[in-house]
Amino acid sequence: MPLRTGTTRPIVLLLSTALAAATLTGCALLELTKDCEGTDDRVKEVAALDILDSRPAGATVARGFEEVDAGCWADSGDVSVYAGRTYAFPGSQAEVAAHYRAAAVRDGWKAGPEALPDDLCFTREEMVLQVVFLTAELLAEDGHGSRPDLTTGAGYSINIDSFVNSGVEAGC
């Protein structure tokens, strides 16, 4: 019994479309499956960088932030390892900035090519280092509530991000 062409044509068209879509998006689908598997050593390496422990005289590790916050995140095929510390400092933001500009240079970091003169953003190898001054708004967004110890003086965090095998160039 011959096949009816009225039924087979839609099926052939559907299968052809599915095959073409799979061929065209195959690479994109592989990128989306990237995750943090195998990044444990890199996380430890980034978390152990000396610059995270460097701080101006008088700065203290902020209460509740005693450990280096380190880990990995994966999103849309990009995999990034991160590490950061949070400090409370009774002095000014200018003092913090002066400390990290000097410490970063000593440690081999360079000002980001697109960074503005007031930015505290540096690059080294495939990593980005940023110093961010904390505000009540930033703390609330991160679920840390009211923290006068971090919003008076110059509370700040120092963070390092390193993209892993993603082709993303480190930049500020």
How does this structure look, described?
Strands 1, 2, 3, 4, 5, 6 and 7 form a seven-stranded antiparallel β-sheet that branches. A hairpin with a 2-residue loop joins strand 2 and strand 3. With 172 residues, this protein is an alpha+beta fold. Helices cover 35% and strands 24% of the residues. About 16% of the residues have low confidence.
Mean pLDDT: 78
Cα shape: globular
Q: Biggest β-sheet: count, sense, barrel? A: 7 strands, antiparallel
Beta content: 15-25%
Order of helices and strands: HHEEEHEEEHHE
Percentage of residues assigned to helices: 25-40%
Query: Based on helices, strands and strand pairing, what is the structural class?
Result: alpha+beta
Q: Count of helices?
A: 5
Number of E strands: 7
Query: Which spans of ≥5 residues are poorly predicted at pLDDT below 50?
Result: 7-33
Report the C-alpha radius of gyration, rounded: 24 Å
CA(first)-CA(last) distance = 68 Å
Give the structure's gist in a few sentences.
With 172 residues, this protein is α+β, with helices and mostly antiparallel strands. It contains 5 helices and 7 strands; from the N terminus they run ααβββαβββααβ. It is 35% helix and 24% strand.
Question: How would the blueprint of this fold be written?
Answer:
Layout: H1 5-32, H2 40-47, E1 60-61, E2 69-75, E3 78-88, H3 93-106, E4 110-111, E5 121-124, E6 127-133, H4 136-141, H5 148-151, E7 156-163
Antiparallel strand pairs: 1-3, 2-3, 3-7, 4-5, 5-6, 6-7
Descriptive terms for the model:
7 strands; 172 residues; alpha+beta
